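To whoever is on call:

I kicked off a structure prediction for a single chain this morning and the downstream step that reads the tokens threw a length-mismatch warning. I double-checked the sequence; it's 691 residues and nothing unusual in it as far as I can see. Pasting both halves so you can look.
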Amino acid sequence: MKLSIIIPTLNEEKYLPILISQLKKQTFQDFEIIVSDGGSTDKTREIAQSFGCKVVEGGLPAKARNEGAKIAKGELFLFLDADNIYLPEDFLEKAIREFEKRNLGVATFPLYVAGNFFVDKIAYFLYNLWVKLTQRFFPLACNIILTKREVFEKVGGFDEKVFVGEDHDFAQRAGKISKFGFIEKAGKVITSARRLEKEGRLKAYSKYILAGVHFYFFGPPKKKIFSYEFNLGASKNFEKELKFHMEKEKLPAPEFQLEYPKLKAGSFWERFSKVFLIFFGILIGLILAGGIYYFGESKNYSLPTFSFDLQQKIKEWQEKIFPQKTPPPQITTKTEPQIVPFDFSSEPFVQIVKSASPAVVSVIVTKDVPKLELYFENPFKEFEEFFETPFEFEIPRYRVKGYEKKEIGGGTAFFVDSNGLLLTNAHVVSDKKADYTVFTNDGKKYPAKVLARDPVKDLAILKVEGENFPYLKLGDSDKVEIGQIVIAIGNALGEFRNTVSVGVISGVGRKVRAQGGGIIETFENVIQTDAALNPGNSGGPLLNLKGEVIGVNFAIVQGAQNIGFSIPINWAKKMIEQIKTTGKVSFPFLGVRYVLVNEIVQQKYNLTVNYGALIIRGEENEPAIIPGSPAQKAGLREGDIILEFNGEKITQENSLAKIISKYSPGDKVSLLILRGGKKIIIEVVLGERSS
């Protein structure tokens, strides 16, 4: 399971069904809901159970969240408050996508208060802004927290001794071992104003400020510094509060309590036969449907969708009360995923190639080279004058007679946007004194400028002037599987433009040593394919059957049959985004030479672990720690083993280089180091390696 949603409650029968109803309508559905209840005396628990939520004994918010996490099964934990009365339908989907894209360990989200009170809007705007500005050096939470399970477990969850602000304390501790982020792209979350109304705004905001001052100067308050009530009940303006945002944000109507399933009333139902209950249920359903139809007409609601939701809820309600002895037959609907056999007769490759080829170009490398002239010279000319006898002997020599443009190499590239950005290999455009020209599929040629090179990943970005270029969509190389069919397009042998070959993914996570131009580079976690690649294919796209780029072809094994390698396209996405937004590319830099530890390395160096990155000198005795690097400034030493990087374990499959590439220069990270048999934590601020 991907996500566990944990909600602390205490007498939340008004708010809980509104929150859970919106969770059930999310576009992302791979989650479980855990309600951690602190001893409610109303129908909170029954409501939670009627939705199929897990219910555990809770307490105050910190304890409640910890108790919920104990039974959670998800990879990620999302902590919500019961009075979060509005979530966009794609909130979970966007939140998780942004969380993983930024490789966060813990995150929070902007929060807005219900109602239209001007002071509240200003206060929450300023608070959200402050959390955003301080996210890198002083993490704070905004009521909603998303975190990785492993991060939660490493910091020991929420501190139950903290009187108030336990969410801020958790964000602070989690931010020390992982990357903290403030996610705005998931949309607006609205919470009830009940605390502000019950305590009075002046008093409530004063408490928030006092708690903040204590947190900044003395740490999280672990003693009672003012009265703080968890059992708030519903807002006195509950219906107005919901109605305002129902109209503004299209919330479910608060008057309609069948937005959550009806509850069982045990002893009452046991007195009657099932036949009578079915008849009675149908009768009540008809009465409710008629009443709701009349109500909907008078309020001008959209009835088709409303009525459909009602029918679904009534059906669920009947199935809960009268479970069938035999399961109903499974009916396949159009919305269910279908396994479609691959039809080779449909020639799918033709359409993919037709669509992709216009975006693939040939790269021609030219350079001013000396123009040599052959001439003959008599080496004994001086002796002829001395002996007054000619020597009939001449030798050939060459001399420079100007310069001429000459093609010295070539490769492939492809457009990644309509404005002329192209992606290729760094080794294709490695000569900084050369000129580069691209030839499109329709025979047009454009001079190209190199905007960025990354020799570590063997990627480069070119730019040609123009607009409305056809471009390729980028796929997700993390989802590549062995056996997957792929298509390679490239400038084979430097002369056969847009040559197409088809194969499969032969392997993933490969480590290869590539040699060319007198340079030897080691690449980790690359894709292996048996699609035929030739010199000149370098920089060309590797496509899946959706026509999406999943790799950039860069190397072949000489003398082998159809063993080629591609760089995962996800490596290039950050580089492309930086060029689009800042016009340059910068890369995170730690400054160590290392070897990944496995069983062989463990035995060779007599190590106590079989994973991690051992900091060691290079093969030519290059220093293990780069002078002046962030690693040297942080105190890393030769012989240290980096076991974890910001909470991520370093393995053969998850190398140090792969993990670092997820971060940006200036990010503060935590390293778990094994030194002299002891584990220590060292914090490092990553430097910048410019392209």
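Update from on-call: the warning came from a stale cache, not from the record. Cleared it. Sanity check on the structure: The CA atoms of residues 426 and 459 lie 5 Å apart.
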